[in-house]
Amino acid sequence: MISFGNLRRFIYGVDFSGAKDAGKKIWIARGVIREEILSITECFQAEDLPGSGRDREQSFRALREFIRKQRDSIFGLDFPFGIPMALVKEESWEEFALSFGDIHKAPEEFKKECKSAAGGKELKRFTDVDTKTPFSPYNLRLYRQTYFGIGDVLGPLVRNNMIRVLPMQRPLPDRAWVLEICPASTLKRENLSLSYKGGDKKHRVARTRILGGIERRGFLRFKEESLRSKILDNPGGDALDSVIAAFATFTALKNGFTSEENSPYALEGWVYV
């Protein structure tokens, strides 16, 4: 654990999914900071959480409860926390998150409404441009993650004041802190953008190169070698993405959560890389 002021916090990286079998596809990496190095101690699927399962609704409920209970922790979640400000009608991010589920009734409607309001274009947020994220929040490859992430994870937790979402909300000592991250952007920053998702030997080699590249920075290690092998052996790369998410979260903490807190970032969100 790391002493942050008077706080002691764990680091979690979450590779999110909006699939029907989200419990299988969501991976969570847990780390602690020792001697200014992030030590990954666990990496598991959301279906392994208490009260969880493979079903999307059940796994989301378990994930929310898990985040709520980790009051001494910081979470990095890899889905957009907002949409371009030109499409936002609310005055604040909190209002946007709380009303999201009422306004958008289904992921397909969300995508269609955003694209229609944008004149058929896929607009990006300012932070997407700044941090070189690959897609608009309502892009075909991402809109389900955006929809379920905001509507089914963040929204309910914000409504019950169970978390603090940075930088749109001020951190509090007795709440979990939640950050938006993007593994692809982190890999670009580290000059490690490789094709690593797949079951071929070349994909595992790429995953090994990525993990080794991060480890050589001197800020990441694994509690056990078997855990490192488990992550590399996951063909979809989801386990690795959760570790990258944890590493990005650790980097944000190490850098003092440097971000833009004013508009448009306060309304659209900020990606920590």
Please describe the biggest sheet, giving its number of strands, its sense, and whether it closes into a barrel.
Answer: 9 strands, mixed
Q: Count the domains.
A: 1
Low-pLDDT windows of residues: 1-7
The number of strands is 9
Shape label: globular
Strand % is 15-25%
By CATH, the architecture is named 2-Layer Sandwich
Which structural class should the secondary elements be placed in? Answer: alpha/beta
CATH topology-level fold name: Nucleotidyltransferase, domain 5
| Share in helix | 40-55%
Strand/helix succession:
EEHEEHEHHHHEEHHEHHHE
Tally of helical segments: 11
What does this structure look like?
The chain has 273 residues and is of the alpha/beta class. It has a single domain, classed as Nucleotidyltransferase, domain 5 (2-Layer Sandwich). It is 42% helix and 18% strand. The protein contains 11 helices and 9 strands. Strands 1, 2, 3, 4, 5, 6, 7, 8 and 9 form a 9-stranded mixed beta sheet that branches. Strand 1 and strand 2 form a beta hairpin. Helix 2 crosses helix 6, helix 3 crosses helix 6 and helix 4 packs across helix 6. It is globular, with a radius of gyration of 17 Å. The N terminus is likely disordered.
Short description:
42% of the residues lie in helices and 18% in strands. The chain has eleven helices and nine strands.
Topology:
Blueprint: E1 2-4, E2 7-15, H1 22-25, E3 27-34, E4 37-45, H2 56-69, E5 73-77, H3 93-103, H4 107-117, H5 126-131, H6 143-159, E6 163-165, E7 176-181, H7 183-189, H8 201-216, E8 220-222, H9 225-233, H10 238-254, H11 265-268, E9 271-272
Parallel strand pairs: 2-5, 4-8, 5-7, 6-7, 7-9
Antiparallel strand pairs: 1-2, 2-3, 3-4
Helix pairs in contact: 2-6, 3-6, 4-6
